Request: fold
Amino acid sequence: MAYRAASKVFKAHLLLVMIVAAVAFILACGEDETPTGTSAPGVTATAQATATRTPTQAAKVELNRLVIAAAPTGYDTNLTWMQGRTSQIDKMPALEFLVGSNRNTGEYIPELAEKWETSPDGKSWTINLRQGIKFHEPAWGTFGAKDVRNAVFLLTQPESIQSSAGTWRGWMGIGAQETIESAGSKVSQKIEIVNDNQVAIHLGVVAPEFFDTISITQDLVMESKARWDSGGKDLYSKAVVGTEPFQFVERVVNQHVLYKRVDNHWRKTPEYKELQFRWMPEDLTRMAAILSGEAQIAGVPRSLQKDVQDKGMSVVRSKLPSVQLWINLGGQYYTSPELFDANAPFVKKEVRQAMSMAINRKEISDNLLQGRTDPLRVVGYHTQLDGVVWPGVYNSEWDGKFEGSYGYNPTKAKELLTQAGYPNGFEFTQYIYRNVQLPELKDISESISNQWKAIGLKPTIKEVEFAEVRDKYRKREMKGAAWAQSGGRILVIDYLKIYNKTANSVAHVYEDAYIDERLTRLDSVIDKSERSKLLKEIGEHKFAQFAEIPMYWLFTEVAVNPKVIGNYSFTGTVTGIYSHLEFIELAAK
Reply:
């Protein structure tokens, strides 16, 4: 019964990704990503008989080092808990997860976990671990149950700023003022080591979607407990040590991160010997790097993609919608009286609606994103993806109502500002920064600023690193500030817990008692239809209150050199970009 409960949710997600991604990609993807002889809810992973015929393989180009020219993430560190999810891209080559994903469909597949199942009440999960997997450095032995507990401890310790830290702290019962010792003690109580190869995780609340939280789409990377016991934070800061197909070589801050491949890796040995992320803040510099051959993959804005294509490069698109773009208006701390200012402009609904109606989304999409965008109606909610996991959670009426309520209408926007008491506009800070997920973000933010000025608003642009913006909104220090934000594709319930929940959250963007009450009820509801109803009610509330300013859903796009890269397939749902790098196929000679 417990296994079937987990399986139903898993199959819902599998159906979800099959809707969005063509099954044909599976047939063309080359090597099977699902390890043989394993099982998981909704997955049958057994060895398959194959024909003995061996087709002639075309000779491939030889590549010693694959270089990715990327915008800096804002967190240049080896410590996985001292950054947000997107910044994990430069550590993921060394680190594996309990649950992986198929690079073509997004389907969950076993990785370091061979099997996972939930209890009948949905509050506990038992995970069977893969045996005999060695850490890159022999001194730390093989992966096991103790390392799972260590991973949860690292994610929930007091200084952790990872995206899902708040969710995990809530599950572990860790409060805001915990010491590192007390946090570790609570994790030990909640993460039961059944034996060396099995753990039981006791959440205390209903979480039928928990398997997603231990997957590659989120933050729980597996690192060595023995290594932590040996040297703690100081030792961890020197290198990223895991079990993935790449082994850490060096990090030169503000310049690059270098890895070497692990030969005969249990899951996949890369075709090239080294992998390097090279940090390049400027769009034109990244474009020049791929055109010159300095890099083989580069984050190039859509406005420059035709230029690189005309010079022989290709553009690869993620298999699934991977990035949502929206605008936050700071100071909406409705559940924190000590921080809330009832006279601040952004807490007036008319102001928030006016700022949305000032934005010409089509113009920005056409000019900066080449029109390759999909509608975003309520931040966190996708028209298809969430609706398959929770039927009915997406209200199709949002599509019909959006233009009249949120769409471009500068005349109406000015009227709304006058109604709110700001006929001459008002001054506020607008933070602008570069983003590795979405190279166009800075230009989009500047375009939005000009459109706000056109209705009489007075934004003062402050160009900063994303790390500064992130630090401010996590500390609830964004009153009177606006900023555009991109986020990877995650389940809507996880988005809400990160951005719209007062307690045990990390982002603190829009906090409201209505949302808190329904998220609390979700902790005790296992029925799928009731969970769908509660999540839909939150979406309705956000839509009616103009909680955020939704912009677009997008697929991630990167430029590649087709003379070197024969095939690069990635879902886009893992940090939004640069995942599944071990499966890159080199081009034929």
